[in-house]
Amino acid sequence: MEQTFAMVKPGAVQRELIGEIITRFEKKGIKLVGLKLMQMSEELAKQHYAEHTEKPFFDELVKGITAGPVVAMVLEGENVINIVRTMAGATRPSDALPGTIRGDYVLDTGKNVIHTSDSKESAIREINLFFKKEEIINYSLATETWIYVLPKTE
Length: 154
Ligand code: GTP
Ligand code: MG
Fold this sequence. Notes:
Layout: E1 3-8, H1 10-14, H2 18-28, E2 31-38, H3 42-48, H4 58-65, E3 70-76, H5 80-88, H6 101-105, E4 114-116, H7 120-130, H8 144-147
The chain binds guanosine-5'-triphosphate and magnesium ion.
Guanosine-5'-triphosphate binds at residues 52, 57, 60-61, 91, 109-110, 112, 115-116, 118.
Function: Major role in the synthesis of nucleoside triphosphates other than ATP. The ATP gamma phosphate is transferred to the NDP beta phosphate via a ping-pong mechanism, using a phosphorylated active-site intermediate.
Domain Nucleoside diphosphate kinase-like: 1-138
Binding site for ATP: 9, 57, 85, 91, 102, 112
């Protein structure tokens, strides 16, 4: 089953949105297989945002993501990379639709409450950056037969 990485950013932790955000994924039927509250170092932040090194807002990005604790998570499910990204909503607040996390909670691009992996490659890279193998838990949910048509043939 596919896995992705998501992170509740410092602003959302301060705004007490951790439960609200995780609840949305749980209600969708997505399985949490890794979860931690952590303070990111500047080094980890720079690695995480390596693709944005040349952007004018890079320093602001690193400062913002290290401004307080974050909640990092690994989520598992069918097509979960795209689905979690869709649930997070568009980067620009004016494009983020109501019903998405950013559509419901964000007014400023620089304070956009959640990070989600944007591709298979990013998901693998980011999961490995934040989680050790033993921190990702392989288990079944009793509800799985009510969430998926099983057995999966593909
Ligand atoms: P992430 O899931 O956080 O990676 O967001 P994204 O994939 O929707 O956007 P992208 O990877 O392009 O940008 C990474 C982060 O940089 C965004 O989540 C924003 O917090 C921030 N960001 C992007 N564009 C701007 C900008 O024009 N100004 C500022 N201040 N921040 C920006
Ligand atoms: Mg991104």
